[in-house]
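Preliminary data (for renewal application), adenosine-5'-triphosphate complex.
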Amino acid sequence: MALALENVSKHFGSLVAIKNLSLTFDVGSVYSIIGPNGAGKSTVVNMIAGSYSVTSGAIRLGASVLNRLPKHRVAQLGIARTYQNLRLFDGMTVLENLEVCFFPQSWLTYLTGARRLGKSERLDICHACLERFGLSDVADTLAGDLPYGRQKILELARAFVTEAPIVLLDEPAAGLNHTETKDMAALIASLKRADRAIILVEHDMDMVMSISDRIDVLNYGELLCSGTPELVRTNEKVQEAYLGTTEELDTIRKLAQGRRAQGGLRSNAGIVRH
Ligand SMILES: Nc1ncnc2c1ncn2[C@@H]1O[C@H](COP(=O)(O)OP(=O)(O)OP(=O)(O)O)[C@@H](O)[C@H]1O
Ligand SMILES: [Mg+2]
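Predicted structure:
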């Protein structure tokens, strides 16, 4: 199954958040969307998932056009997601947080026409998922009582529990420490499958570079560059978008030197845009 964005734009009043974006995502690969703060990454995720309407262009999943579908219909067609800010049900247990993903009806039964799963089948799937994500020991713990790192893993598990063919992950490593981020990268890499596309939005470059088959770079709502990690790493336009032009860097460096002479400035402050 393939997901395609065709000439998609998104305006918020006079702000053009996404401009004429065309991208195709096929099952079997891990894709990363990167770019400086405000580049439009979450807007892309929100448009695909049905949280934001599309101003112009088309988003297609197989033969279906998603543009005007509400979130729950998009989910039923096989798109699951995580949010940049955690959206767990804090007052429900870890297990219950997974089980609700099957209501009102998951893509598994909706699209395939299979009969709805019974309670025990649902629980079997959820327990297997908890096992897979290393959360079995906290199945009956309230999600709000988990430490942050495990909440992020639960959020991830929720996106995979229904086995949706398209999974959107918006900053799964945000707020995690170095070790947790490395573990998260390994976990996501291990979830790559021939019948699934993983679309990752992430600022952690080690993670992006190590697990992506293709990286799409956004800058001010436009596609700056798209290709393998190696191609993106060495692309001059990408380096400028993240670090500024050589002239801008020189100016910043001079400013920093001036301020250091005046009595102190954190090293590198203000150079990287995220
Ligand atoms: N609901 C909204 N209403 C108005 N403007 C919005 C809305 N959502 C996003 N924007 C604007 O659209 C632009 C793109 O925002 P978006 O959240 O997609 O960026 P991002 O690349 O995800 O950034 P970050 O790395 O900080 O998460 C920004 O200028 C943002 O202020
Ligand atoms: Mg974002």
